[in-house]
Design goal:
By secondary structure, the protein is mainly alpha-helical. About 65% of the residues lie in helices and about 0% in strands.
Length: about 160
């Protein structure tokens, strides 16, 4: 295939995408486009100037790219505030998932332990939550962690 045909757009080019992470990006973006070709052209329009900038140490203004729905795709690098917000959002989501899993596991252990206790008096107190005192070592560790958190917030 000759260079003129490629540069004039009168040729077809084929690519192989073997990077699973890149395929994941394509999969997430594809619903926003009517064709794979349009998605790939937008990706090249955004990525090639950055690649050229990196390889030749020149500053290039990224072109404006518009999705199929007419919403502009961000072409500037995320600022640190947005990046921080997204990281916090991700971490909070992880905390919610972990809390939900912990509740489920703790409930299962509680119910299993209740059935395991043979003394009816102790079983009744256990079920009512009267045996819920935190051991001193855990209480002290929790207080130390909370103090550390509050100290970090004031700094």
């Amino acid at each position: 295939m000759n260079r003129e045909a490629i540069l004039s757009g009168n040729s077809r080019q084929y690519i192989s995408v073997k990077d699973v992470e890149l395929l994941g990006y394509i999969e997430r973006l594809l619903p926003h486009y009517t064709t794979f070709n349009k998605l790939l052209n937008d990706a090249l329009r955004l990525g090639l100037p950055k690649l050229l900038e990196e390889k030749e140490n020149v500053e290039i203004t990224l072109p404006s790219v518009v999705e199929e729905r007419g919403t502009p795709i961000k072409t500037k690098r995320r600022n640190s505030l947005e990046t921080g917000y997204n990281e916090i959002k991700s971490l909070l989501s992880e905390v919610v998932v972990n809390s939900t899993l912990n509740k489920a596991m703790l409930s299962g252990l509680f119910n299993a332990k209740e059935k395991e206790i043979s003394n009816p008096t102790i079983a009744g107190r256990f079920k009512q939550g009267l045996l819920n005192n935190i051991p001193d070592c855990l209480f002290d560790a929790e207080m130390d962690m909370l103090k550390e958190i509050s100290k970090d917030e004031t700094e």
